[in-house]
Amino acid sequence: MIIRQEKFKDAAAIRRVHEAAFEQAAEADLVDALREDDEAAPRFSWVAVADRGEIVGHVLLSRIYIEDVPSLALAPVGVMPVWQRKGIGSELIRQVIDDAREAGEQHIVVLGHDSYYPQFGFERAIDYGIEAPFPVPAEVFLVMPLVRNGLTGVKGTVRYPKPFSAV
Ligand SMILES: CC(C)(COP(=O)(O)OP(=O)(O)OC[C@H]1O[C@@H](n2cnc3c(N)ncnc32)[C@H](O)[C@@H]1OP(=O)(O)O)[C@@H](O)C(=O)NCCC(=O)NCCS
Fold first, then answer.
1. CA–CA distance, 135 with 81 (Å, rounded to integer)
2. Rounded to an integer, what distance in angstroms lies between the CA atom of residue 21 and that of residue 27?
3. Ligand 1 pocket residues where CB is under 6 Å
4. Which of 108, 116, 142 has most ligand 1 atoms within 8 Å of CB, for mutation?
5. pLDDT tens across 4-41, in order?
6. Atom of ligand 1 nearest to the CA of 85
7. CB 122 within 8 A of CB 158
8. What is the CATH number of domain 2-162?
9. Distance between alpha carbon 148 and the CA centroid of its chain, in Å?
10. Domain-by-domain residue ranges, the chain?
11. What is the pLDDT of residues 37-62, one digit of tens each?
């Protein structure tokens, strides 16, 4: 299994990963829309490649704002069903987090399972005074500083680029 950054030719295979993982097209459509959206740049996009060259997992970070402070949304992450629960999703998430940190990014927001994301360092956003722009249970709206004190003085409502409103 190789974990590497997305290449131009990967787009169709990435679509197939999300369509299979989520059993619907919405997340695949989101990835394609975010790729085209200027407001969503920069993006950090990593894939997992199986031995035969097949792309079996993908994770994307893209630009959002907490009030006027640039942040990143982790969305979506998906692994082909037969490849799930083998550590691939976790490895993708660790790699994309490292990539963003090395690029100087300060924090990441995710809407996801509270049983899965805390292992990477995500905590309840509301505990930092950070809120979603839509109604969501507090335990699934999470945030992670990428550096010490990365969230100091950062609070308010998260603002997503347009492609998210379709999901
Ligand atoms: C969530 C997902 C990306 C995790 O990738 P993965 O490679 O299966 O995950 P890992 O092997 O690294 O970690 C396994 C852990 O993920 C969690 N997990 C995996 N699938 C899960 C599911 N369907 N529901 C809840 N937790 C799940 C469990 O904690 C699991 O640990 P366990 O096997 O000890 O129970 C993958 O299961 C997936 O694509 N799911 C469908 C799409 C999705 O829900 N994406 C995330 C949206 S928040």
1. 29
2. 9
3. 21-22, 77-79, 84-90, 112-113, 115-116
4. 116
5. 999 999 999 999 999 999 999 999 999 999 999 999 99
6. 11
7. no
8. 3.40.630.30
9. 21
10. 2-162
11. 999 999 999 999 999 999 999 999 99
